[in-house]
Amino acid sequence: MKKLSINRWWLFEGKEISDTIEEISTFGFNGIELDLADPTNYNINELKKILNKYKMKPSGIAAVNTLYSEYDLCSLEEDIRKRAINDVKSCLSFAKKVGAPVVVILPGLKQEGKDDELLFNNFIGNLKELGEVCEELNLRICIENAHGRICENSDDLLKVFETIGSLSRYIGAVFDTGHFLLSKENLNDVATKLRRYIYHLHIDNNGGKLDDHALPTVGLLTEHDFVKFFETLKANNYQGWYSFEIRPKNETVSFILKSCKKFFDNVVAQD
Predict the structure, then answer these.
(1) Is the separation of the CB atoms in 89 and 134 below 8 Å?
(2) What residues contact 248, with CB distance under 8 A and at least 6 apart?
(3) What would the DSSP string read from start to end of 191-211?
(4) Residue 187: which residues within 8 A CB-CB, separation 6 or more?
(5) What is the mean pLDDT, run by run of 10 residues, along the chain of 271 residues?
(6) β-strands 102-105, 31-36: how paired?
(7) What is the pLDDT of residues 32-78, one digit of tens each?
(8) Three-state SS for 77?
């Protein structure tokens, strides 16, 4: 089965989920990555009916609150860490109910004048608690590296997975192609380094300076870069979704969906 997904957040902000899923389906997608800030924003029974109607699968749940300092999994303040843990647990519970295989989180923020090692240890402690929930629910958490956070690059992610040991069966990486471009890393090299821990994928591009989340054909990453990267993923038996995470500029939603589907057919799905 093809695993072609698109992230809902930027493309369909303010649009009814039923209309969103219908539109995505008409362009040939069979997966949608849902953003979750508040579980009450969705009626789970209705959501499942709509997904079934259009033969759509939830490819993942984005725990979007982990973007913000109020939900920082590394925070030095215990009440903030507890709030963050509870939020991710809510996302895991939601994922289990709707049938999503992964929950995507952002690691905590670095803090000027604060010891990175202490922040890292806070993150590890929280991941261990969350890993137990993942094991119980048979779900995975995927960490998305980003600038200014405890995990900025592949070395930081690898340190996390080696530190948590066997829990890495349930806690791995979401490989965001644009984020590794910003950390000035070769996609193919990172795919080899993190091969055991890549459980989800975000496809996007940028100009090397800002996290544009542009179409894969717009930016410094070339088609050749992507082809080699996908070859390495497949060689290492990647089984997850190919989820496009695009932030529109002047493009229409229909143009973005057509472009992503064409890229998937011509670049990703080629043997």
Answers:
(1) no
(2) 10, 11, 256
(3) HHHTGGGEEEEEE-B--SSS-
(4) 177, 180, 181, 221, 225, 226, 228, 229
(5) 92 93 97 95 96 98 97 96 98 98 96 87 97 98 96 97 98 98 97 97 97 98 97 96 96 97 93 59
(6) unpaired
(7) 999 999 988 999 999 999 999 999 999 999 999 999 999 999 999 99
(8) coil
Nearest C-alpha neighbor of 172 from the set 206, 205, 130, 209 = 130
Tokens of 45: 């029974």
Range of the domain at 88: 4-268
Are the C-beta atoms of 119 and 150 separated by less than 8 Å? Answer: yes
Q: Running DSSP on this structure, what letter comes out for residue 37?
A: S
Q: Domain containing 10 — which CATH number?
A: 3.20.20.150
75 by DSSP, 3-state: which?
coil
Query: CA nearest 149: which of 245, 73, 64?
Result: 73
Both tokens of 140, joined, read 């995975």
* CA gap 158, 166 in Å, rounded: 13
Provide the domain count of the chain.
1
The residue type of 80 is I
CA distances from 23 to 31, 56, 235, 265 (A): 12, 11, 33, 18
